[in-house]
Amino acid sequence: MRRRGFLRQAGLAALAAGLPARPARAQGSRPGWSPFPDPAHGWHGESSVATALRAHGAVAPPPPALPRPPAATLGGSALPAPAALRERFPDLRRHFVFEYYPWYGADPYRHWDQWERQPPHDLAASSVPKLGAYDSRSTAVLERHAEWIAASGAGAVNVSWWGAGSYEDRAIHVLMDVMRAHDLKVTFHLEPYADDRAARFADDVLYLVREFGDRRGFDAFLVLKHADGSEGPVLKGFRTILPEQVVDCRGRVHEVPDYAPDDAWRRETDRARELLRRSFDQVTLLADSLDFGRTPAAGFDGIAIYDNFVEPASYPDHAAASSARSLLFSLNTNPGYDAILPRTIEDECFEPPAFLPPTPGLDFATREGRDLAAERAVARLRESLAATLAVQQDPRLENARRGFLLVYLNSFNEWHEGHAIEPMKDAAELTASERAHGYHNPSRGDGRLQALSEALRPLL
């Protein structure tokens, strides 16, 4: 394949020489909350969509006048026939990709201690994982994760990456070894590890392709195949299309520290494609944005929405708006949102996030309440999967026209925000020390993973 000669190509001498490693982030937990990133403590701040809301009160301009795709209902006529999908995408399972976080540590604790939690029983999670406060570098943990992911039907993971030399970066080769053994592929979303990271975006893309693709002979690196047979990597960024300023609840204006203008992003996205153009048919770069004017101006190929507060009912409008600007789109499959709260809140404008999907009268202090929340999460999984498949296969829209399909599953193990599909402990398995912290574990802790597996099985 052409990419086998990747490091020998003209223009990649800098890569062959190696990029300078960036210092690892500090250990410890963030004492408070801010809408902006704190890379030193692994806090990625609010997404582009949430920051746009904070700045403008809207996530996007009104969508264009375009007929809405058919309503999406799981098992309904809006869903594509499984045989037709498999015919268009012979590697169909590779197009279902779990968001994956390799940032947990156990000696010392990392991330489990966010916002003043004290592991091993007091965790930065609304529910206790089946594996407890695990270490992302443990081969045994990775093996169990790979088994669960492969059994679900998904074929890849999208790894949270915090710069060359970071804790997460150093965990990836072992992660890839395990994923490869289970016939799973790995790709990346680039986190806001520094305020000036937009100026390094092309170097970061090239580093990822070189270090985790070329150097390993692309044994576990996701090279996505499209319906026309073309192929290439798909990478996305978090906090990309940002406003210059936001306004808080008291009307005070704050500069956004990691804002980068569209032309700065455009230089980097263009440079990344130019350096990789001889190695792949295309390089697909996605932004976590619903700004359909700035996203193409910044040189991104499309949008990949991370936020679970973007309702599945809105997917047709966002897909239509993307298509009107010739943008690809990936609107995620998710179980909703059940985030932990900081114990020290220094920002007077902080608003506690609500449980999603909205469930009036929900009482987590009761078994019935916890099981109801679990049922609602499963319903959201099914609804969002149906919605994203329906719009991605609508022949009037950009994805179907260009033979592109990509379903991000949000997430496998983002425990802080409560949308992990990784199994949690059954309520009966919680220890007395764990029960004292009021976790939300339902009677059956693997319900989300089982529901997703059942929904994907007819397709895959």
Could you outline the blueprint of secondary structure elements for this entry?
Blueprint: H1 13-17, H2 48-56, H3 82-88, E1 96-100, E2 105-106, E3 109-110, H4 139-152, E4 156-161, H5 167-181, E5 185-190, H6 201-212, E6 224-225, E7 231-232, E8 234-237, E9 245-247, E10 253-255, H7 262-276, E11 284-287, H8 294-297, E12 302-305, H9 315-324, E13 328-331, H10 367-392, H11 398-402, E14 407-409, H12 432-435, H13 447-456
Parallel strand pairs: 1-4, 1-14, 4-5, 5-8, 8-11, 11-12, 12-13
Antiparallel strand pairs: 2-3, 6-7, 9-10
Helix pairs in contact: 4-5, 6-7, 10-13
- Uncertain stretches: 4-31, 69-78
Q: How many domains in all? A: 1
Content of β-strand: 5-15%
CATH topology: TIM Barrel
Q: Would you identify the CATH architecture?
A: Alpha-Beta Barrel
Shape: globular
How many strand segments?
Answer: 14
The secondary-structure class comes to: alpha/beta
Order of helix and strand elements from N to C terminus: HHHEEEHEHEHEEEEEHEHEHEHHEHH
Q: What would the average pLDDT be, to the nearest integer?
A: 88
CATH superfamily: Glycosidases
CATH class assignment? Alpha Beta
The number of helical segments is 13
